[in-house]
Amino acid sequence: MDKKLFRAMAAAFVLAAVSVSSGCEDKEKPTPVPSESETVGDYREETSEAPEVTGMPVFKEYAETDFKDVALSLTIVDKEAPVEISTVDISGFDFGEKVPLCNKEEFAEDYYTDKRESFIDNVAYNWKEFVDVPVRGIPCKCFIWNGKCYIFVIYEQFHVYDWSLFSCDLSGGNMTEVYNWSARDTAEYCDINVCFSDGGMFFTRYRNDNNRLVPDVFRVDLENAVETALYEGAGKDAGIWLFADESGTVNLQEFSNIGDKGTTVYRYDSGKGEFVKDEVITAPEGQIMSSDCFNGVYSYLIKPEGKRKYDLVNEYYHMKTALTTGRIVYADEKLAVLFNNIKLHIYNLEKMEHCIIDISDMGTAMTMSGGKLFIGSNGNRVKTPVYCVIPELGITYPIVDAGIYSDITPTADGITFNETSTDIHKITGYITDENGEVHRGGFTHEYDRIDKLYTVKLK
């Protein structure tokens, strides 16, 4: 039995039980573009009296058949989108080179001879070829805060032993190195996944502790470049996942590496300057297929034991859905948006409608902001626009030309995303074939190098 954790439901919740019965499968093909009246759809008004206002939400249960199915087609509108867009272009920046720790003379022989030869298939590396060889900086994360653009740049050689944090103004000028980090030895390195939030950059450092990889989490203040330790993984037999939720708050999920001890969730409290443990309870039984936090509330997509279709669960409701695969895009007390890798399933809990939209050609990266759905990124080899969609109508605006985009992220008043290009870094080695002949080979890193950062504000 897989278990996750989510915020505690109030003990005074009133359970509104409704009949649970099976519903219809997805439509095979969306209907033609609906008229305005069809788009609005019929809905069933509540006939029961409103519950007494107690300040606590009423927990509800929904069957799949409680929702009216509405198949929508996307309507691409050739008009100005209801957004304002600004861009920071960093494509011309040179972030310089650094000799990573593993290429320094005192570490290179041990690193390339002992560790890499056994780690990367049957490729052997001549350590002498790497001594004092520098690596170019690659920008892989951007963030706008307090009128500046902050850029996380890595100098990677198998692991991230060196990185820097740069800043520039919003016109793309006056680039300055704010902070830099280097490992003390080859048993210490950083995760490429960093989080920006509330005037700080959060990063994870891994170190070897008695042949165990131990994660520690730190925060670098963007204003004064002060580093603060926030989480120490020693003695916990746990792995972590560091991420920023839909509200921009940094979360740390701690999961046990031994047995089924569940997951503990911590949020960064900017007032206290530390991670604070969430109040949590055990989720209903079933396999957790997807989870995320929206407006401070965790939602879970669960596959009940012995069932094909998923349930959506949070502190507002327990809902039977039409999905047999997929993830949560957004969920609150009035709206749930799910994606099954081809179609959007939009559950409107005020109109009691289940709208289905085919978005198979639009992309897989998406987020909600201000009631608008933003979609893009159809793989790092396929150029697509980023779209702004009004979910309940299917009305769709392309807000930028086709390109390679990533990191579509909500903000307080819109979204941000990056335009990227492919950057390849090859580490040369030697492969001995079955006949004993030696050929040049090696290991290749392929990066999404950030060229532009877009900020989108809703009008």
Report on this structure.
It is a single chain. With 459 residues, the chain is mainly β. The protein has two helices and 37 strands. The chain has helices spanning 36-40, 105-119, and strands at residues 5-7, 60-62, 68-72, 75-76, 83-89, 97-98, 123-124, 135-136, 138-145, 148-157, 159-169, 176-182, 188-190, 195-197, 200-209, 212-221, 227-232, 238-244, 250-256, 263-269, 274-277, 280-282, 287-294, 297-303, 311-313, 317-320, 327-331, 335-339, 343-348, 353-358, 365-369, 372-376, 387-390, 395-398, 405-410, 414-432, 438-458. The strands form nine sheets. The protein has a five-stranded mixed sheet, with no helix packed on it. The protein has a five-stranded mixed sheet with strand order 3-30-29-28-27, with no helix packed on it. Strands 4-34-33-32-31 form a five-stranded mixed sheet, with no helix packed on it. β9 and β10 (148-157) form a beta hairpin. The chain starts with a strand and ends with a strand. The model is unreliable at 1-54 (pLDDT under 50).
- Major beta-sheet overview: 5 strands, mixed
Supply the helix-strand structural class. mainly beta
Gap from first CA to last CA: 46 Å
Q: How many strands in all?
A: 37
The helix content is: under 10%
Strand fraction = over 45%
Low-confidence stretches are 1-54
How large, in whole angstroms, is the Cα Rg? 25 Å
Average pLDDT figure: 82
| Strand arrangement in the largest pleated sheet | 2-26-25-24-23
User: Helix count?
Assistant: 2
- Overall shape: it is globular
